[in-house]
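sorry for the late reply, my laptop died twice this morning and i had to redo everyting from scratch. anyway the thing you sent over, i finally got around to it. pasting the sequence first so we're on the same page, its 778 residues, then the predicted structure underneath. double check i copied it right bc i was rushing
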Amino acid sequence: MDASGYSNSPVVMLSESASMQMTVFRRADGTLIGRSRGTISVAPPYIPVEEFLQHWRAIFTNTTVFQQRSAINPWLDDVYYEVTECDTKDCTINNMEAILYNATFRDYFDDLYTLYAIAGAHLIVKAARNQPASLLSVPAISLSAEMEIDDDNKKYELYNLQAGETLVKVGDFTSDRLILDTSLIRDYNWDIELMWPQLRKAVYPSGHDCDECYSISNLQERYIVDERDAYIVGINPILKSDGETGCGEISTTNTYAVADAIRFAANQINKSNLYFSHLNIGVIVLCTCNNPIVVQRKIYELVKEGVMLRDGTRLNVKDKIIGFIGDVGSTISISVAEVLSRLKYVQISYASTSPALSDRSKYLYFMRTVTPDDAQAKAMVALLHDLGADYIQVIFSAGAATTVIVFLRSHMVQPLMVELQKRVKPGEFMFIGSEAWSKNTQILDEDDKQIMLGSFTLVLEINPASLLVEHTKSFDPKPLDENPWVTLYLQEKLGCYFNTSFRKTYANVCALADPLNKPNFVLDTWSTSAFVATRAMLMGGHQHHINTCGTESTSLCPQFSSPREIDNLVQQIRSVELDLEGKGDDVKVFTTNGDGNVGYRIYNVIQDAGDRSRLEYKEVGQYPLEGSFTFNLNNAHVSREAVSICPNIQTCKGCTNEVTTVHPQPKSEANVGMIAIGLFGVAMIAVIVLVVVIFMVRRAHIKDKDTIYLHPTTSERDHTQSHVYQRDMHFMQVRLEAVGKSPETTPPPSHCKNSGVFHDINLHEDNNKTDTTQISNM
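ok and here's the structure:
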């Protein structure tokens, strides 16, 4: 410690090998090592053996007895010389006074392990005599108490080295439970004595990332296990995808918050005692890394090998799984559904909106709490109709179209808008955001130029549970062995570091208590949707458990997971009703096909009445799946200059018959003119383009060129094919360039050239950045 390279004043904890010997804390010359004060030392229970001390005192305080004993035990001379340092000088063994003995020999012989050595000798004797050895009572020495020998009942004591060179007992650790008297603990910053809680903390220095302290590759394979009687498995892309290893760094989107919403929903079910009253529900969280290969491997490993618990034991959960909740992206949910259809487990996604997932001939046990994209497209068309806009672009277009559809993954919206602030003037465009944009307040907070003023977004009609909101705001950092992701998630989201973290690459320290608890906190839609999905699965699973296992069962009986019964489990889940809108009226969570049964609320971006430099969302309409579309245009902020209509027939005629097939690109970088459709997912691209084609329809018969209206008609094939919309919209300027193809292989028409503010903006799928902007906090 005198030459410590880690700290000028290190915080030290010693194992039981220190044996409570003060010599550990002294230099060779016998002086105390000043930095050792405040040390915490762990030791087995110390029980003095007074008879043994008397035995040694009788030897070393009586020369005659010493000579007799040393004649048969030559080591006694060595002990005497070492303790009295007679090995370095000429001295004669004499009678020792009691005071001298106590000062020199008592510490030497009053060793921590004296009792354990005696106990070991007696155990051997008893074992030789075939006597029970569970309780040890030594007849030759009158011990003050019997000593219980039990490997499962490990006992330790905690000692604190304090001023005066004394070891003070401050706590006990028994049966994995620590009892600590913090009022007794003392720490020392050089000569200053510190008391609880102002103790020094053993932390990694700021400005560094301790690769030796944790491994990102280890975090990629970790999972969270709430050990219970039966399990929900949450599958979430907590880490980003990486092309080389399959998993990358921690994601700054809210996917960790979603995973915790699943755990919170299960805990609420356990507390209610209304469902699964005789067994507790746990959650296993798997990280998919937004990679279909990774998630399929992890699911098979989970079912085949179980999970490793913190104590190193492995838990078999194959017959304890109720179902799976997730994932976000439709590509991942499709890969999961393919596996679970074979393994015969139910799955509920909280965010995947591809119409392809409505195919029950392929995905028999798949359900979702969100509405497919085809319904969202209809809602957008209805909104555009009431706005009077018929000349639009999907992110990228040439010409004068100023109504822009933003149809991106949620984590791509913010970097796009940050880049557009450099190129777009306020009021120049009106954006129509999909439910992936939702009510993301951070997007508005970073819009200093207010280019989004007057824009609209669609939000699923699911009211966030107040308890879930408060729970999410109370996230705190946790040790890596307890929770492998929450600390890194909070740091990356907030752009700061915690003192207890091994990664301290940010400049500022995070608030220690409830760092997410801020006035403008808004719970993301995914967390609410995952919370609803988990409740629905457990409520339906509860009824199925009663039907198959009975009301008194304390486990999932074999019939619960029987292939013959899984269809009944699906039906029980589909029949669940919840108060989704927070109005006290329960509605079915799912349609008869298992899709989400919620419509959309329409929000308008307006200026805050109290602070016009800030933007906020205001509800101006609703698009229910059943019922009438309502939109209060008079109550909305709309820039009429941004509501674009077709300027003339000649300008728009070429676009009305243009349908461009979109192909997946092999790389993760795309022109923004492409990513509006392309980044929805490689396997989903063609489907989404067909959905968005609804915005390219025109009126079949033009009677009055000055009358603009939108009246889409649809022709839906069965669920084995994509939804296809017939075009019936008057003049619409849309440029959908083939993703992954150059303009030479897919030549654009002359009126749709690669130009405009949306051209040449590059967004990177995996690291959330533009070619000029690094986005670190989504």
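Residues 525-549 form the longest helix (25 residues).
thats about all i looked at so far, will dig more tmrw
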